[in-house]
Write a structure and sequence with these properties.
This protein has helices at about 1-30, 50-55, 60, 75-85, 95-100, 145-155, 175-180, 195-200, 225-230, 235-250, 255-265, 270-275, 285-300, 320-325, and strands at about 35-45, 65-70, 90, 110-115, 120-125, 140, 165-170, 185-190, 205-210, 220-225, 280-285. With about 325 residues, it is of the alpha/beta class. The strands form two sheets. The protein has a six-stranded mixed beta sheet with strand order 2-1-3-10-4-11, sandwiched between helices. Strands 7-6-8-5-9 form a five-stranded mixed beta sheet, with helices on both faces. β6, α6 (about 145-155) and β7 form a beta-alpha-beta unit. α2 packs across α10, α10 (about 235-250) crosses α14 and α11 crosses α12.
């Protein structure tokens, strides 16, 4: 009887110890519910460097986010990802953003994180001195991109139309060789695509012009799905905090940021520094950004790229930006 009692006592002690250990493990282990999932789409290029920094430096993670980075070659693919529901948040230029608004999919613009009036550069063979020399020529561009919108504006500003040239749909990766083999006479794009063309073709090419002076600041925007707003608004606030921190880091740790982004983009540090001259970053949403978006929308409508002008103001939700900047 005494032996039985001893055995029971030992078993009870083992159970108590096991329970205590289990409780300690549970208390020390991170709760899965504390991690917020975010499918974020952007490109490994100059226009998207705050997002690259936020991901690579762990700023998203610091805000409790587990970001699945969906890397695309341009903003139009980010817009498509949001439209199909395969991404929750996307970074893109003005034209893809307005095009997404025009589809009336419920996507909202939550902030601009940068801009660059001259960020779209037209680079071509040296026998093309001005935009008017493009008549009858082939120009490579990523269809649906902000650069295509800038090309149309450049043509109009110089008394030309899209019918005066042949627009060739090109993947940015194919642009250097397409110029070298004269499949196209010129290309237009944002960095690093024009610089890649210049590096591949040397003295045979030059910058014909850029998008400065066309009436737009070409804001870089962040768009989110209505589903994310309705179901997980805290994710949006956390993401904006991380991006804001990344922009600040780019100012205080310039050389480190340059090296990191150059490596991710696949360009030299010197090219990275040159390319950065085309844009400036800041988490904001100012009247100039909204006016530029409206101007782009009017131009896309007049050129037949969208069927109706979206209500830009109605597509904006400042709640999260205002909260982060308060």
């Amino acid at each position: 009887m005494k032996i039985g009692r001893k055995i029971l006592a030992v078993v009870a002690a083992i159970i108590i110890v096991a329970a205590a250990v289990g409780a300690a493990i549970l208390m020390s282990a991170p709760a899965d519910d504390d991690v917020m999932e975010l499918r974020l789409t952007y490109s490994n290029k100059i226009d998207y460097e705050p997002l690259i920094i936020a991901q690579e430096k762990g700023f998203f993670k610091d805000e409790g986010l587990n970001v699945t980075a969906l890397i695309v070659s341009g903003g139009i693919q980010s817009a498509e990802a949001l439209a199909t529901g395969s991404a929750d948040m996307g970074a893109m230029g003005d034209a893809p953003g307005v095009t997404l608004m025009a589809k009336n999919m419920g996507a909202k613009l939550i902030a601009s994180y940068g801009s660059g009036e001259g960020q779209h550069r037209l680079v071509g063979w040296t026998d093309i001195a001005t935009v008017t020399d493009l008549v009858g020529k082939k120009v490579g561009v990523q269809f649906g991109s902000s650069s295509q919108g800038a090309l149309l504006r450049l043509l109009e500003a110089n008394g030309l139309s899209a019918d005066d040239i042949t627009s060739v749909s090109l993947s940015p990766a194919d642009m250097p060789n397409a110029v070298k083999t004269r499949q196209v006479d010129a290309i237009i794009g944002s960095e690093p695509w024009p610089t890649n063309v210049e590096n591949a073709n040397g003295a045979d090419v030059h910058e014909i012009t850029n998008s400065s002076g066309l009436g737009s600041t070409y804001p870089l925007v962040l768009m989110v799905t209505q589903k994310l707003i309705d179901e997980r608004p805290e994710v949006i606030t956390a993401a904006l905090k991380a991006i804001d921190r990344a922009i600040a880091y780019m100012g205080t740790d310039y050389e480190t940021s340059i090296a990191l982004c150059a490596g991710k983009i696949g360009i030299s540090v010197s090219d990275e520094k040159k390319c950065l001259d085309t844009v400036s970053y800041g988490l904001r949403l100012e009247r100039t950004d909204i006016d530029s978006l409206r101007s782009v929308g009017e131009f896309l409508l007049s050129s037949g790229k969208i069927s109706a002008l979206p209500d830009i103001e109605a597509a904006i939700d400042r709640t999260y930006l205002d909260g982060v900047k308060a």
